[in-house]
Every structure is written in structure tokens, then in C-alpha cells.
Write a sequence for this structure.
């Protein structure tokens, strides 16, 4: 949450509620519901680390409203985040662990596990495709990414199937 | 059942087995996708079901009667009236107009010129290419040509539409378009469709996906339509983390 907030503040100072709204507006379809507390906690940490500062605006009869803005150090951090490639994330796969261990323990046929997994991926692909046809641009672009991952997962299941069900006992 | 295949086997000279005892039943109004890596036998299966090739062993029933032992002449009759074909390449006749391409199979099947015109107009309308009726298909984009090919395949109101990699030669937007139209033909007209594709995303549009490997059916799965609730689907399948 740190860097998304810094990135939003790069457009100009804003108070916490505006930041929450901006996130929801851009990613509403694909974000879990945000709670305001999460945003304020993060802003507090950013402030402690010297990356943002706040100007308190007095409000009649209510607590001061805090308007946050980036510090110079915050801008440097943000530029570093933008300039770095984001690490790939597809190296964790719970299914693969299940497949290898269930087979080793003799408690499941790899072919059956793979068939079940293939059905689940195809079903997900079907539903994503339905979504892609009727959503906003941001969500639809993300859906395309998820669909491509699923297609790769399906190809990889084919590979697992070929290597694990050809009578080899390497596994 | 529109199609029942039992023990369908196709062995080529030299002993290469393209298909090994495949059983498949396709009920009326179903949309089935057959998928699998190249060489798995999916196109061979489709060619046998459509009478474009003959099995080495096994039975095929179409609309409740055995057709596997039909002569070529009898098969030609069946293909013309009861089966629609769509292929990766559109195989349209360049020096005939779109309208004539679509009407031709109807006229060959003995449908009156008036009836052929009516059916053609309605199909071109449904498929969104009515405005191109008088043009040569060679002037159309790949996606539009495939729509013409779909209209031609459906003009004789076949029991089953057999489609072999119908999106294989299209860009992804046209491919999606063609799949949407096939879905429409299935959802609104109850058209029975058997579609062969190596593309999982295309296969995922069907009601049932049959996966083949080494000439056999490896597994199959039935798919549910999306539940319509976009937000719920998205949050279940791919939440962004921030």
C-alpha cells in the first residue's frame, strides 16, 4: 500500500479519504474492499519515515483535516519504485506441491488430479472471458493478463501430464 | 443424440494410429469443444464425424442412424443437408458475391431460390454482414470472411455444425467475435456445435470440453456459464494486492 499512496500523492496533495476514493475509482472492480483505517495507518508510517508530511486544515467544530503531500525523500523513494522492474510472481504453485506429494504418497492418481485442475482452470477461463466482455478498461486489461496466465497454466498441466503419466517412476 | 460415435478408430497406412477407439455422444443442442495438442487426433475425429474421412473401425450414428458404412454418394448427400462445416481457412469462392456464396449450398440441396434468399438475408443480418451481401468475399477482413463461411455452413439448417479451428487464422479480436457469434447461434437457435481447437480460451466458450491426447479422450469437463456477477467473479479469480 505504501507505493500506491506515494504515487497518488505525486499528482498533488490529498487527504486520506480522497486517496481511498482515487484507488477505488481506478481499481474498483479488482481491489478487495479498502478500509479507511488501512489507508491512515499506512499514511502514518509514511509520515514517520519522512516520506510524506501533512498540513492540518482547521475545520469548524471538527478535528483538523490532514492534507498529505510528498516530501523530497518521498519523491526519491517513489522514483526508485517506478524505475525498478517488478519481480515475476509465478514461482509459487500449490497445485504442483499437491501433485508431487500426493503421487509420492500413493494417495492419488496424477491423471485425476490434473484432470480436475484442468476443469477448474477452464471454468475460470470461461468466467474471466464473460467478465472481459462487459467491464471497464482497467479491469479488462487485468482480465486479459489473468486469462493468459490460465492459458499458460493449462499448457503446463499438459506437460505435467505427459511427463508424469508415461510410466516413469522418477517422481 | 445428434451424434454417437463408438470405438472410432483411424489407422493410416504404415500403422500410424491417429484415433484409438474414441466414444463420443453429442446430444441435440450441445456445444462441445474438442481440444488437445497438435497430433492428438482431434481433427481426425471431426473429419470422421463429418464423413470427410472413413474410420478403420467403429460406428457413427448421425440423427439416430448408422452412417459409417455409407457410400461416398450417400455421404455427400448427408454432408450437404445435415452437416455444416467451418474451417480455419474460409474457402469462399472469390468470383461469387457474399450472398451467392451463402445461397449456393441451399440451391444445391434443392431449396427454392426464394427460400434460399430469405434464409441468406436472415443469416447475414444475424451475423452482422448484411451490408456486404453484394461484395466479393475477397474484399472482406478475415473475421468477416469467417462470418460468411458460418452463414454458408448454416444455410441448410444442419443438425450439427462442425468447426475445425475456426479462429485459427484470425487476430484475437476477430476470434472473440466469431466465438461470440457461434455462442449466439447455439444459445438462440439451439444449434448443435462440435468445435475443434488447440486454443483453451476458445474451448472455454463451449458447454463441454473434451481433451484428447495420443488419439484418445484424456478427460472431459462440463463448464457453467459465468454467474453474471462481475464483481464477485473478479474478486474470486484475481484480486489485486495493494
Amino acid at each position: 500500500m505504501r507505493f500506491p499512496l506515494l504515487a497518488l500523492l505525486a499528482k498533488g496533495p490529498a487527504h486520506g479519504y480522497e486517496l481511498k476514493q482515487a484507488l477505488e475509482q481506478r481499481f474498483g472492480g479488482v481491489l478487495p474492499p479498502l478500509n479507511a483505517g488501512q489507508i491512515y495507518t499506512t499514511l502514518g508510517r509514511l509520515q514517520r519515515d519522512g516520506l510524506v508530511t501533512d498540513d492540518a486544515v482547521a475545520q469548524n467544530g471538527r478535528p483538523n483535516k490532514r492534507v498529505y503531500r510528498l516530501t523530497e525523500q518521498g519523491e526519491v523513494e517513489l522514483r526508485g519504485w517506478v524505475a525498478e522492474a517488478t519481480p515475476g510472481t509465478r514461482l509459487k504453485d500449490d497445485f504442483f506441491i499437491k501433485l508431487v506429494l500426493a503421487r509420492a504418497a500413493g494417495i492419488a492418481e496424477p491423471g485425476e488430479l490434473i484432470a480436475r485442475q484442468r476443469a477448474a482452470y477452464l471454468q475460470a477461463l470461461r468466467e474471466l472471458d464473460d467478465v472481459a466482455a462487459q467491464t471497464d478498461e482497467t479491469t479488462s486489461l487485468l482480465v486479459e493478463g489473468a486469462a493468459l496466465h490460465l492459458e499458460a497454466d493449462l499448457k503446463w498441466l499438459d506437460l505435467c501430464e505427459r511427463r508424469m503419466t508415461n510410466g516413469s517412476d522418477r517422481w | 443424440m445428434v451424434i454417437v460415435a463408438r470405438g472410432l478408430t483411424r489407422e493410416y497406412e504404415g500403422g500410424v494410429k491417429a484415433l484409438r477407439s474414441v466414444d463420443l455422444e453429442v446430444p441435440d443442442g450441445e456445444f462441445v469443444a474438442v481440444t488437445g495438442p497438435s497430433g492428438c487426433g482431434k481433427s481426425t475425429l471431426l473429419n470422421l464425424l463429418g464423413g470427410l474421412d472413413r474410420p478403420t473401425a467403429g460406428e457413427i450414428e448421425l440423427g439416430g442412424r448408422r452412417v459409417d458404412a455409407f457410400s461416398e454418394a450417400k455421404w455427400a448427400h448427408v454432408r450437404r443437408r445435415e452437416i455444416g462445416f467451418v474451417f480455419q481457412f474460409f474457402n469462399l469462392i472469390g468470383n461469387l458475391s457474399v450472398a451467392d456464396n451463402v445461397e449456393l449450398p441451399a440451391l444445391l440441396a434443392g431449396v427454392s431460390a426464394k427460400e434460399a434468399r430469405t434464409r441468406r438475408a436472415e443469416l447475414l443480418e444475424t451475423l452482422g454482414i448484411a451490408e456486404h451481401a453484394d461484395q466479393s468475399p475477397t474484399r472482406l477482413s478475415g473475421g468477416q470472411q469467417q462470418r460468411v463461411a458460418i452463414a454458408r455452413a448454416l444455410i441448410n439448417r444442419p443438425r450439427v455444425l462442425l468447426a475445425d479451428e475456426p479462429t485459427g487464422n484470425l487476430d484475437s479480436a476477430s476470434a472473440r467475435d466469431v466465438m461470440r457469434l457461434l455462442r449466439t447461434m447455439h444459445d438462440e437457435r439451439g444449434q448443435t456445435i462440435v468445435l475443434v481447437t488447440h486454443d483453451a480460451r476458445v474451448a472455454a466458450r463451449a458447454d463441454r470440453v473434451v481433451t484428447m491426447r495420443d488419439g484418445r479422450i484424456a478427460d472431459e469437463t462440463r463448464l457453467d456459464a459465468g454467474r453474471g456477477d462481475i464483481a464477485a467473479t473478479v474478486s474470486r479469480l484475481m484480486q489485486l494486492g495493494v
User: Anything to note?
Assistant: The two ends of chain B are 51 Å apart (CA to CA).
